[in-house]
Design brief:
By secondary structure, this protein is of the alpha/beta class. It is built from twelve helices and 15 strands. Bound molecules: adenosine-5'-triphosphate and magnesium ion. The site of magnesium ion has 4 residues, from helix 4.
Length: 382
Amino acid sequence: MAVTKEAVLAGLDAVATPDGTPLPKTGKLSDIIVSDGKVFFSISVDAAVVQAWEPVRKAAEAAVRAVPGVTSAMVALTGERSGQGRGGPPERPQGAPSPHAGRGRPAAAAAERQPAVPGVGAIIAVASGKGGVGKSTTAVNLALGLRDLGLTVGMLDADIYGPSVPKLLAIRGKPELHGGNRLKPMDGYGLKVMSIGFLVEEETPMIWRGPMVISALTQMLREVEWGTLDVMVVDMPPGTGDAQLTMAQQVPLRGAVIVSTPQDLALIDARRGIAMFNRVNVPVLGLVENMSYFVCPKCGERSDIFGHGGAQHEAERQGVPFLGAVPLHMDIRETSDSGRPVVATEPDGPHARIYRDIAAKVRDALGPGPSGRAAPKIVIEA
Ligand SMILES: Nc1ncnc2c1ncn2[C@@H]1O[C@H](COP(=O)(O)OP(=O)(O)OP(=O)(O)O)[C@@H](O)[C@H]1O
Ligand SMILES: [Mg+2]
């Protein structure tokens, strides 16, 4: 029995939202794609209430799965920033950009002001102006792509309010102490990993104030036995507010990769992300368009549900490189959410290839390491 959009919407009528409005009447749904029993759509809410909407996303998936004929459902939840953080406790940093973002107050280059981390080659940030655009998924798969290029890669989860790297890499347990008071990073698919998620229980309320956040970040950067790394990938917290700016300044960054979805609102945030890194003189290595297009798993037909191509145009407009487009795909979602990132678990698949291509562009943009050590010459398979 063929599934129709109307049947999906009827199923969603029973899904209540935090204020009680039935989901289809909220105006927050994207176009609904139905393809061979598989259903995809997104819910866009204010970034400040994203967490409150996560149960709604789950309920929506369950309701769609219950529609006769539906074989799978994927509902993405994205946060539109409107001057607030992306939810969570009130102490969270504001996502609002500073009115001076991109101009005014000259800032010394983060890389100049912050001492290098001994043994660590280039440190790159993966950032986004808004939450839920797939930054952590991109960061993890980019790190694995760099690993596949033969580099020794570390991963630092700087999202202290919402650490997700332990889950994305299915790492459990606590880091061991090395010598006196230095921590040993954990291992995830050959990456050396550190996250606040290893150190605090998930239920611990994240009522960290700004200075504590910075000291946690500094400790994870400098009091961890990273050993020798070619590249460290830092998964930044979303947003471009002062808190994020300060974090960007605490790390001697060689460059930043900005992740965006193709929608206009996300692109405005991506532009703010570029401005933030410009302000601290960190070069933007390029823009990745995530959830760029949807390819029907059955017929191969491509749908641009969010208006594909926006990030590439934005990259051209901003004069930053375009690093690649990653499709919205169930495999990426499922592997990411179950701790089996696609580059590690489906290395021969099309998605892994896209991430490795992005990784190769990032590696080339980095050039030789600060230690004078040239980036290894790697032959990428055809
Ligand atoms: N290309 C993709 N195709 C399908 N699902 C994706 C894709 N990229 C990310 N996702 C899914 O979207 C959700 C959000 O991704 P992720 O956690 O990586 O975003 P984020 O920007 O780091 O979010 P946050 O702002 O909360 O840190 C996850 O469920 C993830 O699996
Ligand atoms: Mg994240």
